[in-house]
Amino acid sequence: MRWPRRVVSVAAFLLLLVAPPLLLVRLTGWPVPAWPSLAQVEQWVADPITTQTVTGALTVVAWLLWLLMVGTIALRLLARVRTAARWMRRMPLPTPLQATATGLAGVAVLGTHTGTAGTPVLGQPATTTPTVDNDRGDLREPQSRQAPDQPAEAAGVVVPGGWLPQETAEQIAAAGALLWLRRRRSYRPDVPDPARHDADLVPLPAVVAAAQTAVATEPDGPRGSTGQGTPGAGRQDGDASVVVFPPGGVSLTGPGASDAARGILITAALQALRDPRQSVRLVTTHADVDVLLNPHPRTASVAGIHVAPTVDDAITAVTSRPAPSPVHRGEDQTGQDRLLLLTHAPTSPQASSRLAEIVARTDVALIVVGELPASDNWSVDSAGHIHSHHDPARRRGRLCVLDMAAARDLLTVISPADVHTAARTPSPPPLVPRPRTPHHTDDETSTTPRRSDAPVLRLRVLGGVTVSFQGTPVVIRRSAALQALVFLAVHPHGATGRDLVEAIWPGLPAHRVTGRLYTTMSDLRKAMREACGAAPIEHVNDRYRLNPGLDVDLWRLHHAVRQATTAVTDRTRAWQAVIDEYGGALADGYTWPWLEAHREVVRRHVIDAHVALADGQADPRQALALLQDAIRVDPYNEDLHRRAAKILTALGDHAAASELLDAYAQRLAQAGLTPTHLLSGTGHQDL
C-alpha cells in the first residue's frame, strides 16, 4: 500500500518545515530582535569577532538556509498549481459522441429509458473525429485546443511528405481501393506460375498506405483493425482547412507555397474522380506542372485537370469553358465551387494585369504561387498553416500540403494506365512507383506442409484469420500482433523489424515505433506460449520468422501451386488440389494496406488453376462451370467473364451471355469502373 509511505513523507516534510524555526527561536531567539544602536555598531567595528557576533552570524545563516528551502518549496508548489490550472483550462468537455456513448452505457447498466435521442444539426461542422489511439485499434476522441479567435480544428492525416485533411485522406484511400479493382479487372489468366512477377502487383505508395490506415477506424470488427498507434497517421493535427478562396485571387507565399499548390492540384483531381460529371476543376500550364512535379507524364491525362501550353492558353481555356455545376458547400475539398486557375507569379506587369482582369470579369478562382499585387497574400508554412500577412502569429486555417514525391505518387494512383497483365508476357512499367523502402514480397516457402491432424499450432489465413491448438482457439489480444502474425505467414522466409514496422504502422519513422513492435511481438509470443507451451516465432539477427513446423493453410496452397506447375502427369488432379486448398480471400475482412498485393497473388493463383482446368476440358459445360467458379473467386475480372460469355455464345445461349455481361457491367459501374474495349460494343460483337 502506498498511503503509509505518503503519510510518512508528508510528516517528514512538515517536520522539516516547522522544526528548524522553532529550535532557532527557542535557542537563540529571533535573528534581529531590534535594530542595533550607533554605539553597538561602533563597538562591533572596533571588535568584530566576539562570541556574540559569531553566534549571531551563524543564526542568520541558519535562517537564510531555512528561507532558501521554503522558497524552493514555494516555487515547486507554484509550478504545480500553474500546471493544474492549465490542465483545468484545457480539460475537454464531453463531445457529442462521448455523451451519446455515456448515455447508452447508462441505459445498458441501469435499464433506464431515455426520452429522446440527440439530433445532429445539418450543416454544422464537426470539430472532432474519432481516431485510432493504440495498437489495439481503440478509438479516442481528439479534442480541440484552439484559442477562442481561431477556427475550429478539423481532423487531419500526417502522411509521408505532407498533411491531408480528413476528407482528402478518405478520397485517397478510396482511390487506392479503386486502383486494386482496376488491376483485378484487367488481369488476364495465363499459364500458372508460383513465382509471380506481375508488374501490377507492386504495393501502393507509402502516402496511400498511411491514408488508408488513418481512415480505417472501426475498432471491434476486423475491417477496422489497423494496429495504428498513438503517434501514427490519422491523429487530429491542425486547424480547419480553408473552404473559400477570396475574390481577387490568392498569392501563396512562404516555405509551404509550392507544397500547398501541389495539394490543391491533387485535391482537384480527387474531386473529379469522385464526380466525373464536372469535367474540369483546375486549369494550369505545362511550365507550372514542370516546376511543381518535375514533369509528370500523366498529369495531362488526369481527370479534372486541364494543362495548357502557356498562360495565355490557360486564360483562354477558363474564359471559354463553362464553370463546374454547383455542389453543396463543404463537399468540395478545394474549398469552393468555382473553376481554379493555378499558376506561378507572372514576370511581366502586362501578364499580372491580364490575370487581374480575368478574375474581375469571371468567376474563376485564381491561385498564384508567389507575389501577386492586389491579391490576398497567404503565407503558408511547411505544415500547411496559413499565417496572416499582418499578424504572422495568428493562423487563418490550413491547406493540404504535399511534397513532390508524394504528389507524383498520388497522381499515378489517381490516374493509372489501363494495362492488361499476362503472367508470362513482357510487363509494362509498374503502375505505381515502388515504395521508398523496399518490402519483401517472397510468398514461397520451402517447408513441407504438415498433416492437418497433427497436434501442432494451426494458423488459418484464407477466408479469415484464426489460430488454434488441438481444436482450442488461441486469442490474440492485440490487433497489431494479429497483423504481425499474418505478415509472417505471408513471408515464410522471415521479415526484419523494419519490414514489420513499415507494414503495421505505415508512414512513421521506424525508430518511433520500435518499442511498440517489441511490445507487440512479446504479447504475441506470450499468447502462443500460453496456448501450446512454446513460442513458434523465431527471432535471429533482427529477423522474425514463423517456425516451419506450423500448419499454415497459405503455405499448403503455395506448395500445391508448385506441385501443379512441376507435375508431369495427372495435372488435372494437381490443379484441383490448388482449388481445394483455397478457403477464401487472404485475411478476408481485414483492410491492412500491405495486404492487398499478397491477397491478389493468392487470388490469381486460384484463378489460374480454374482456367487451366477449364482449358483442358473437352466438355464446354464443365469448362463453363469452372469459369463460373473462378468468377466467384473474383467477380471483377473481365477476362473470366469474356471466356464464360464466349462459351455461352458457342452453346447457343445468347440471352445468358448477354445477361452475364450486363450484370458484370452493372457491377463495375457500382464500383466506379467501366468495361474495357474487350467488352465494348453493342451486343458484345467482339465475342
TrEMBL record:
<dbReference type="InterPro" id="IPR011990">
    <property type="entry name" value="TPR-like_helical_dom_sf"/>
</dbReference>
<keyword id="KW-1133">Transmembrane helix</keyword>
<protein>
    <submittedName>
        <fullName>Transcriptional activator domain-containing protein</fullName>
    </submittedName>
</protein>
<feature type="region of interest" description="Disordered">
    <location>
        <begin position="215"/>
        <end position="238"/>
    </location>
</feature>
<feature type="region of interest" description="Disordered">
    <location>
        <begin position="420"/>
        <end position="454"/>
    </location>
</feature>
<dbReference type="Pfam" id="PF03704">
    <property type="entry name" value="BTAD"/>
</dbReference>
<feature type="domain" description="Bacterial transcriptional activator">
    <location>
        <begin position="552"/>
        <end position="679"/>
    </location>
</feature>
<feature type="region of interest" description="Disordered">
    <location>
        <begin position="116"/>
        <end position="154"/>
    </location>
</feature>
<keyword id="KW-0472">Membrane</keyword>
<dbReference type="InterPro" id="IPR005158">
    <property type="entry name" value="BTAD"/>
</dbReference>
<keyword id="KW-0812">Transmembrane</keyword>
<feature type="compositionally biased region" description="Pro residues">
    <location>
        <begin position="426"/>
        <end position="435"/>
    </location>
</feature>
<dbReference type="InterPro" id="IPR036388">
    <property type="entry name" value="WH-like_DNA-bd_sf"/>
</dbReference>
<dbReference type="InterPro" id="IPR051677">
    <property type="entry name" value="AfsR-DnrI-RedD_regulator"/>
</dbReference>
<feature type="compositionally biased region" description="Basic and acidic residues">
    <location>
        <begin position="133"/>
        <end position="143"/>
    </location>
</feature>
<feature type="transmembrane region" description="Helical">
    <location>
        <begin position="60"/>
        <end position="79"/>
    </location>
</feature>
